[in-house]
Structure prediction request, 47 residues.
Amino acid sequence: MLQENLVTQVYFTVWGLTSVFSSLYVISLVAAASKLKELVATISVKI
Prediction:
């Protein structure tokens, strides 16, 4: 019974970490995309 509980805990910990990391990844992608848009806009204005 204890073994099963441990497996469940590990599973939920891994799942939680994965979801946190994937949301951080998405947020950084979005931030990078908006920075890139700003950069492109700045370059377009200069040209």
About this structure: Residues 34 and 40 are 10 Å apart (CA to CA). The mean pLDDT is 93.
